[in-house]
Amino acid sequence: MGTIIAIANQKGGVGKTTLALHGAAYLARHGQRVVVIDADTQANASSWVLGYVPASSALYDLLVRERSWADVLRRVNGAWQIGFLAGSAETAGAMTVLETLHRPFDTVARRLAPLAKVADHVLIDMPPSRASGFLELLYAADHVLIPTQLERHSLEGVVFMAQACHDLREQHGRGPRLLGIVPNMLDRRTLLHSRQATRLVQSIGAAVWAPIPRAIVVAETAGTGRVVFDSAPGSDADRALEAFGQRLLANSRGAPGCAPSLGGSDE
């Protein structure tokens, strides 16, 4: 069985999509079978990977239209070598429909679970915490990885995520375990960032991963169908994201399995 990892923070703009896609690309390039789920209604991951935002949402097809994972999973080759569940504006509607139909809370978890049988890692690029279905998606995950900027509102999002996981355990019997907290977009020239990074490590400890510096090359690469590993090899961003990928692989690697091929359509 693979592991399902939610990449989440209450605050937007912390780099969830960047880390989800670079983590996926790194894992795939190191022999791992990876599926990425674009669960954010902005569909930034879909735009980055596919070059466009599809009209339909894979989550809507999976959860509401009840299509099989094999029907909605795309195989994306090129720079990625991953399985991909694309998102669109329709994604939010999936969660609203489930709520309207009074489907059980664990519906999302049950529908996503088979993906962990065909992949070593399933990474969910999560929507904002206030979005419909956020807790249901979080409940489907085995682990949560929390990107944060080193500013007050983003760091408050870390506290919210801890509380959300606690509430899931209290109300539904289980919740994802913390995989790590990733300080992102670090500006080493800013004293505030340095102080916040130090305080974060002092208060949380080893769960805080190495920071990733702010880099214009990341923004320039977004939406090109490429990753920084290819667009700016040897750059500070490349080295930092490589280290992030190494930590992700080391922390989330499960026992060797014998899952079948990801399947799905070629892209």
Task: Jot down its keywords.
267 residues; alpha/beta; Rossmann fold; 9-stranded mixed β-sheet; 43% helix
Structure overview:
The chain has a single domain (about 5-255), classed as P-loop containing nucleotide triphosphate hydrolases (Rossmann fold). A nine-stranded mixed beta sheet has the order 8-7-6-1-5-2-4-3-9, with helices on both faces. The two termini are about 25 Å apart. The protein has about 270 residues and is an alpha/beta fold. The protein has twelve helices and nine strands.
Q: Please state the CA-atom Rg, rounded to the nearest Å.
A: 17 Å
Number of strands: 9
Level-2 CATH architecture: 3-Layer(aba) Sandwich
The largest β sheet comes out as: 9 strands, mixed
Q: What is the helix tally?
A: 12
The unreliable regions are: 254-263
The CATH superfamily appears as P-loop containing nucleotide triphosphate hydrolases
Helix content: 40-55%
Topology:
Elements: E1 3-7, H1 16-29, E2 34-38, H2 44-50, H3 58-63, H4 69-72, E3 74-76, E4 82-85, H5 90-100, H6 107-112, E5 121-125, H7 134-139, E6 143-148, H8 152-172, E7 177-186, H9 191-204, E8 212-213, H10 216-221, H11 228-231, H12 236-252, E9 265-266
Parallel strand pairs: 1-5, 1-6, 2-4, 2-5, 3-9, 6-7, 7-8
Antiparallel strand pairs: 3-4
Helix pairs in contact: 1-12
